[in-house]
Design brief:
Pfam families: RVT_1 (PF00078). With about 350 residues, this protein is an alpha+beta fold. The chain has a domain at about 295-360. The protein has helices at about 10, 15-25, 30-40, 40-55, 80-100, 115-130, 145, 150-160, 165-175, 210-230, 250-265, 300-315, 325-335, 345-360; strands at about 65, 75, 135-140, 235, 240-245, 275-280, 285, 290, 295. Strand 1 (about 65) and strand 2 form a beta hairpin. Helix 5 (about 80-100) packs parallel to helix 10 (about 210-230) and helix 10 crosses helix 11. The longest helix is centred in the middle third of the chain and has 21 residues, at about 210-230.
Length: about 350
Amino acid sequence: MKRIKNIFSEIYDFENLYYAYKDAIKGKRYREDIMLYTDKLEENLIDLQNELIWKTYEVGAYRRFYVYEPKKRLIMSLQFKDRVTQHAIYRQINPILDKQLIDDTYACRKEKGSHKAVHKLQNWMRKDERKGRYYYLKLDIAKYFYRIDHKILMDILKRKIADKDLLEVFDKIINCEDTRFGLPIGADIADVNSEEMLLGVGLPIGNLTSQMFANLYLNELDQFAKHKLKLKQYIRYMDDIIILHEDKKELGRIKTEIERFLNEELHLQLNNKTCIRPTTMGIEFVGFRIWSTHIKLRKQTVKRMKRRLKYVFTHYENGEIDKETLDRSIASYRGILKHFESYGLRNSLNELYKQEVTEKWM
């Protein structure tokens, strides 16, 4: 594919900035910072447009906070102006870059997603197990977002993009001088403070462009797996990768080749969750455990779901959300449950729902 040229003017086009603003406020329009930005919307968008045109745009300071599900992660939240900027970039660039990705990568892509990834993997398993014994290689990359190498990422972007102005903005987003995103090799986010984090590696979890960059970074591995290793049953959801093969020893060889590629070309490491096992044991993938005959939610996912529902019920009981909002939350979980065998879990959640709602209305 030809390198992307002369696209920066489309990014700072006022109409694109306006629709980027509309994308950025979805589900958040009543937050104080967004209401302040909206109060002088045209003026703020013109200011942002001028910053991009005259190359004075700088990324603002991040707000840092932690989330603890499924594990402790550091989230870095941008100022609203910067989120509008990222949406403006994403609207124009991501559809072009997405065309360069392989078909069997499913994270953060239109018409893809975790449920389609699960069902694609299960279809492979059904076909394979009719032929005989099959194995899977599960690849787990250590601290993926925290270990992405900035120089390698910029080199990848330069191979695909010839627009100098856009590359300069990407460099400001990726190599933020005021904020450290990276973890030392072997360290955990729970073990380090902000001063011990590294410059030159890592992407902030929560950024829209981080999702795009992270997908593009491992596209290098996807291309290696498909075109060099000639793998037919290779599937990826961000940094969660499964490979199926009838030969266990061949999967061992593939693991060695992939590990070498990750270390040498992308400066990434596999962790001790990487394994080779028979498909009949079931495969853990994107929060599910998958067999050729059925699909179940992982126990940890069920626990998180119940905790989340309890959290929603508490807000309802405190009068912080109304019945309509509560019902929408319940409906979203019911939608998830339709994708796998969940009779017992549905009954459990229904009982919890009836109990909580009945107590509120007594």
